[in-house]
Amino acid sequence: MTRLAFLSPREKRSFDSPPTLNKRNRPAYFTVTSDVRKTLSALKTPATKVGFLLELGYFKHCAKFFAPEQFRARDIQYVKQLLHLTQDVDLAEYRSARYRTRILALLGWAAFGDSKAVLVAEHVQLLAQQQLKPQQIFLATVDFCWKHRIEVPSYHQLSEVITDSFNIVESRLLAQLESLLGKDDRSKLDDLLLTPPAQGWPVLTQLKIVNQSLRASDIQRNVDACAALADHFYAVEPLINQLSLPDQATEYYATWVQKAKLTQLKQLSNPGKRYLYLLAYIKHQYMDRQDTLVDIFLKCVRTAINSANKRVNAIEKKTRTERRQAIRAITKSHQSARRLLEEITRVVKSSAHAPSEKVQKIERLIDDYHALQTESEASRLAELEDALSRDADGLPYYEALDHQSLRTQRRVASVLKTLVFDPDSSEHDLLSAVLHYQRTDGQIGPSPPMEFLTCKEQAIVGDAQTFRTSLYKILLFQYAADAIRAGKLNLRYSYRYRAIQDYLIHRPQWDEERERLMELAGLTRFSDGARYLADLKHGLEDRYCAVNERYLAGDNSYLSVDKNGLAKIRTPGTAFNEEQAVAALLVQYGVVPVQQLLRDIDQISHFVGCFKHLSPKHSKLKPTIETVLAGILGKGCNIGIDKLALISVGINTNTLKNTVNWCFSLKNIQAANNAIISLIDRLALSNAFRRHPGELHTSSDGRKVNVAVDSLHANYSFKYFGKDQGVAMYTFIDERHSLFHSTVISASDREAAFVIDGLLQNDVVKSDIHSTDTHGFTESIFAATHFIHTAFAPRFKKIGRQKLYGFSSKATYQKRGYAIVPSRTINQKLILKHWDDILRFMATIKLRYASASQLFKRLSSYAKDHPLYRALKEFGRIIKTQFILTYYDDVDLRQRIEKQLNKVELANRFSKAVFFANSQEFQDGTKEEQEIATACKVLIQNAIVLWNYLYLSQLLTDTTDPDRRNDMLETIVGGSILTWRHVNLQGEYDFRREAANDTPFDLPNILALKLA
Asked: Which of 417, 717, 757, 915 is deepest in the core (most CB within 10 A)?
C-alpha cells in the first residue's frame, strides 16, 4: 500500500526533529519544579537526569518524544548547567522508554496508544469521509491531539493512519456500491456519458452549465436542466441514500466530474469508482440546482414586490393632491352633517315647541341640507369615500401586485413547479396550496386552497364567481418566498434550504454516540449543563462586584453612569501609524515587480507546491512555478486568465487554463496561504506585534465589491453599488497582519453568521480573542465562540444601549449599592431545557458535519425564533454580559480592539490595491469562482506581508548599532506591515523561466533574530 505523501522531505524532517530553541525560550521549557525535582532525585546517573529533563522540555514544546541521539547539543549544555553538572554525559545510557510514562503523568497527558490511538483514528476517518486534503487532516489531527492532551505521533504513524483512513473510506464505499449496483443501475449511469441522437453534446456535458441570468429564457434553461437531472436522480436515489455520502464528500467527487473531460471519466480503471463519482455528481447537481432555482425564485419575487411598492408609491405621490382635496371635501361634508345633527338635537330637546312643531323644524333643516347637496356632489363624495377606504384597506398594493403577476409568472411559474418541498418540516396550509399548484400545472381553478391567506386577502382574491387568478398566484409566490426564508417551507433536496434538524448530527446517532462525539468535538467539559451554568453564575457575580467596586471607588475614570443607569465610556486614542513609516523603510530597496516578489517568497515558503491535482491520492499534473504564479496573478489581481495569457511573456494559454482548472481549488489556495502564514509565525519580528505573548488577537470585516456579470449570488444595494449589484469580500486578519481566512458572501447576508467559519476553517491560526464591528455581532455568536474557546470582543459603537443580564434580579444588585446592574434575569430553565441540543449543534459545527454559517443562517431565518436559537441567544447573553463588564473596566482591551479593527480596515484598502483590474468588479458570477479569486488576492497580500517582514528583519539583522536598531524596531512595531507602495502590481508580466537564483534573504539569520 503506497502511503500518502503530504509533507515535503524538509517538512517531514522538521516535524520529526526536536524543536530549535534559543536562549530566550529555553528557560520556559527546561524548568526544575518541585515535582520534577522529586523525579530527578530518584534518578541515579547524570546522563539519566539530563535525558529526562531534555525529554520533558521537548514534550512541553511539541507534545512529542524523540530518540536521545536527536537531542540538540546546545540544549544538552544548557540542561547540564541548570543541573550544575560539569562532567561529560553519555546520553546512550538514557533509556527513554522507562521515563516517558512519568513525563506523561507529570504533565497530565496520555500516550498515543490503545484507546487514544483508536480515538485519533476515528477523528481522522471522520475527516477522510468528508474528503478533506491529507495535509489539512494532518494539521487538524495534530491540533486534535493537543486539545485532548494526547501524545502527538510521528509523521510515519500519522501518515499511516491518514492513508489507512482514505483507503478504508474509499474501499468501504466501493464495496458497498458493488453490492448495491444492479445491471439497470449501471446502464442508467453509463447513459450519462452518451451523446443522444440529434444532440451535439453528451448528457453529462449539458448538465454542467448553470445560468446566472434572470431572463425568462435563461431561467427556463435552468428549470429544464433541473427536470432532466430529476429523472436521473430519482432513478438512483435509493443507491444514493444507502451510500450516505456526507455533503462535503459529495461536493468533492462532484467537483472532480465537473472539471474532468468525458474521456477522463471513461478511462477510470475501476468502473466502481466511475459510478461512485457519477452518483455523487447527480446528487450534488440536483441539490445545487434546487438551491439555484430557489435563489431565482426569491430574487424574482422580491423584484415583483419591490416593483409593486414602487408603483404604489408613485401612484400615492401622483394623487397626493387629489387625496388631500378629497379629505378636505369629506371633512367639510362631515362637518355639515355634524352641524345638522346638532341642530336636530337642539330641536328635539327643546321644551318650547310642541312635538308637531319639532317635526316641521326637523323637516325644514333636512330639506335645507339636501338643497345644499347636489346629486353630483353626493356621488362625488361617495366616490371619494370609497377611494379613501380602498387606500386604508391596502387595495392599491394588491392591485399593483396583480399588475406584476403575469410578468412574474413567466419567470417563476415553472420554478415553483420544479421545487421539491419536505412535507415533514413545512407549514401545512401553505404546502397544500403549493402542491395543488404543482399538481394542476399552474391551472389552479376557481377554488384552490386559500387557508394560507389572511381573511382580508381571501376577500380581495374573491370567491368562485369573482376569483382573481393572477392575484392569487402572485400572493402564493410571495407567501412561498417568505416561508422559504423563514424556515416554514423547507426543501427536501438542498444544501442551503433544508430544515435545521436536517443539518445537525442525526438524533439516533447523537443519542447512541453522544459521549464519543462530545470527546471528538472537545466538548466534554460542557457535558453537565447545570454545573457549568453554576460556574458561570459565580464568575458573573464576581465580575459585577469587581466592576462596581472600581467604579464606585473612582478607579475607572473612563466610565460614567447617568441618572437613568446608562453607561458611557471614553477610550483614549492609540498610536497607530498605519503604513507611512514602514513604507519609507521598504522603498529603500526600490520597486519590486510582483511576480519577482512571489518567486522570492516561494523559494522560502514553497507555497507553489500546494497547488496539487484535485485527487488527494494522485499527482497527475505538476504545474510549473511560472504557470502557478500566472494563475495567481490572473485571478488575484482580477485581470482574468485569458487576458493575462495575452499580455504576458512565457505563458501557454492552454497550459495555464488546465492548471487553473485542476489545481486552483479553494483548499489548495488555502494550503498555500497557510504555508506563508506558518513562516510569518516563525519570525521574531511578526510576533513583536502581539500585544500579549502567548495570546493572538484577530478581527474580521467585509468589503463590498461590484459584480459586472449576471450573478445569482449578488444583490442590489443602492447604498453600496448604486444601480448595480454586488457581494461582500469577508476577510480575517490577526495582529501579526496575516490574512488567514476569506470568503465571499451575499451583500444582504449579515456578516455575523460567517465569524465562526473563519475561526474554525483554518489550520494555522488559533484565535484567542476575535473582534468585529457591530454588524459582526449577535448574542448567538457570543455563545458559539465560547464553545470553541475564543473570546469574542466586538466593538460596540453605543455600548450603553447594550442590555446587561444577570442570574439575580436588578433589585438584588441595586440593594448592594451597585451603579451597573442587569436589566433582565437570565432564563436558566430555557438554557438547561435545550442544553443537549446546544451541544449537538456545536458538535455538528466542530466535527464539520455542517458549516456554522449554514446553521446560523437557517436558525436566524425562522419567523418565530426556533427554541434552539432562543436557548443559544440566552446562553450568549451570559457571555456577552461578561464581556461588556470587562469592556467597561479595561481600557487596554478597548484600545486593542480599536487597533485590531484598524488593521482589518487597512487590509481592505490593501485589497483594493491588489484587486485592481476591471474596475475592481468581479468578472465571474458563481460564488465558487469569486471565492477562488478572493483567495488568490489574499495569497498575494500575504506574500507581500511576508516579503515586508523578511526585508525589515534583514535590515534589523544587518544593523549593528543597538540604539539605531531599537529606534528602527520601535518605528516598525508602531506602524503596519500592510504596505504595498514598493510593489509594482501592474505592468509587463514576464514568466520566462529564469536561472536559479539565491533568495535575497538570509533566512537562517532572520529566524535567529532576537528582539529582546
From this structure: 915
User: How do residues 969-997 score in pLDDT, each as one tens digit?
Assistant: 998 998 899 999 999 998 777 777 665 56
As given in the structure block, the three cell numbers for residue 791 are 473570546
pLDDT of residue 378: 61
* Residue 168 belongs to domain spanning: 110-180
Distance between CA 975 and CA 580 in Å, rounded? 8
Name the amino acid, one letter, at 450: M
Distances (CA, A) of 890 to 145, 639, 661: 34, 46, 50
Q: What is the pLDDT of residues 72-105, one digit of tens each?
A: 999 999 999 999 998 888 888 888 787 899 999 9
Establish if 192 belongs to a structural domain: yes
The answer to whether residues 94 and 193 belong to one domain is no
Let me know: does 205 contact 262? Beta carbons within 8 Å.
yes
Closest CA to 702 of 737, 666, 732, 735: 732
Residues 6 or more apart in contact with residue 569 via CB below 8 angstroms: 558, 559, 560, 799, 800, 887, 888, 894
CA atoms of 157 and 151, how far apart (whole Å): 12
- pLDDT on residue 889: 94
Same domain? For 212 and 175 the reply is no
Q: Is residue 655 part of a domain?
A: yes
Spatial distance between the Cα atoms of 872 and 856, rounded to a whole number of angstroms: 11
Would you state the pLDDT for residue 464? 80
Neighbours of 104 (CB within 10 A): 17
Q: Give the Cα separation of 434 and 475 in Å (integer).
A: 11
3-state secondary structure of 195: coil
Which of 237, 269, 303 delimits the end of a domain? 303
3-state secondary structure (DSSP) of residue 311: helix
Q: Which pLDDT score, from 0 to 100, does residue 394 have?
A: 65
The residue assigned the cell 496508544 is 113
Helices (H), 244-354: 247-259, 262-266, 271-318, 320-349
Between strands 983-984 and 824-825, the pairing is unpaired
What are 190's three cell numbers?
453509463
Number of domains in the chain: 5
Cα–Cα distance for residue pair 781/754, rounded to 1 Å:
10
Query: What integer pLDDT is reported at residue 559 of this predicted model?
Result: 94
DSSP assignment letter at 177: H
- pLDDT per position as a tens digit, 867-876: 999 999 999 9
**List of the chain residues with pLDDT < 50:** 1, 618-619
